[in-house]
Amino acid sequence: xxxxxxxxxAQGLKPERIHTEVFSALPALNPGITATPAVRPHQPxxxxxxxxxxxxxxxxxxxxxxxxxxxxxxxxxxxxxxACDVPTRWSCRTGVCHTxxxxxxxxxxxxxxxxxxxxxxxxxxxxxxxxxxEVVLDL
Length: 139
What we know:
Blueprint: H1 2-10, E1 58-61, E2 66-69, H2 77-83, E3 101-106, E4 109-111, E5 123-125, E6 129-131, E7 135-137
Parallel strand pairs: 1-7
Antiparallel strand pairs: 1-2, 3-5, 3-7, 4-6
C-alpha cells in the first residue's frame, strides 16, 4: 500500500485524496545486528495438536491466519509468535518497554512476571505473558 500511495503521489494526486488501510500485522521490529529475511507465518515446527508438546489452549494470530495450540515449553506468547514467524515488535522481553503491546481480540492471558506498568485494557505485553485459555491476538 505504501508503494501504491507513493506512485499515486508521483502521478500528481493530492495526498489528502489518497486513503489506504493495512490489513496485516505491523512490520516486525526485532533488535539485532543483522537483518533477517522475511518468512511467511506458519505452524511451529514439531508436534501440533496431537503431540505431547503442544497440548494447551489454542492461540490465534488473527492477521497472520495462524491458529496453533499453546505449549507450556514456551516462555511467552512472543516465543510462540516467533516460532510461527509471525511478525512481532519487541525490544526488552521483560514487560518494561511496551514495544510488544498487542491488542487482544478475545480471550484472557496471564503474566509470567507482572509488568512495571500494565498496558491499556484490551491489550497485552506478549513478551511476558501466556494464554489463560483460548486467545486471539491482533497479530
